[in-house]
Amino acid sequence: MTNPTARAPSDAWTLERMLQWGTGYLKHSGSPSARLDAQLLIGHACNLDKVQLYVQFERPLATAELDTLRALFKRRAAGEPVAYILGEKEFYQRSFLVNTGVLVPRPETEHLVDAVLEYLDGHDLPNPNLVDVGTGSGCIAVTLAAQWPEATVLAIDTAADALQVAALNAEKHSVRDRVKLAQGHLLDPIQSTDSVDVVVSNPPYLDATLMGTLPRDIRDFEPIGALDGGPDGLDLIRDLVADAPRVLKAGGLLAMEVAHDEQAAAVQALLDSQSALSFQQIIPDYAGIGRVVTALKEQS
User: Fold this and answer.
1) Domain parsing of the chain, residue ranges
2) Domain 88-297 adopts which CATH fold?
3) Confidence (pTM)
4) Which H or E run contains 69?
């Protein structure tokens, strides 16, 4: 098939033809979601949503659109995640700004939000105080604030650039007044004790084996520090479990995302080995893999 980067006349390249070519090009480059990637890139370059793209299949591309698409497809073929190319990613039916300083939000993390919302729904907590540890883009903190208007969320991260992205997303979704930001390690920024209703975290949890098998779009582009959990993936989780009882109120929730069933079982064992927190449940993701582990602080 003719390469669209060869400056063919714009009327020779319709949206449909570009989608067909782009899908093949990205599939050949190794994308596991080539057609979806092509749809998103074309929609972004041409300011079209999915329905508009298909309705206007026969519309020819302008030269400027072809030039833009040439650059976008090259970036994706080199492995750059589509979310970074577009500068945004959907999470919990909201669009979040992202860049290479933060992880790309993933559908599995929505289960973490669900776990917190279920807890809040089952407890009469006026103006609950929530803490999101390792906030990154702020997708968890902002979503919780948006879903629970009575809540205040402290979003903590070690990286100043990540907190800048989180602040922009809080502004974008009109919750900046209830999403506070703090730079620091895990729960270190919190000095008060017994003051938090919920600690939620998607911490670095990949072990050495998983780190060695990362696909290039993650390995070469996403922040490794937000992924690497040490030899067994539990370095940060151990510290979080140890310190969470200090800040949680009696009956308060600790909810953490984990890598898989085996790690979920290891975290359960970690919780069972101490007395301050009581293991509650392992929540599976859409694929049935243990993805979220929850615990409650024991009543005094």
Assistant:
1) 4-78, 88-297
2) Rossmann fold (3.40.50)
3) 0.93
4) helix 63-77
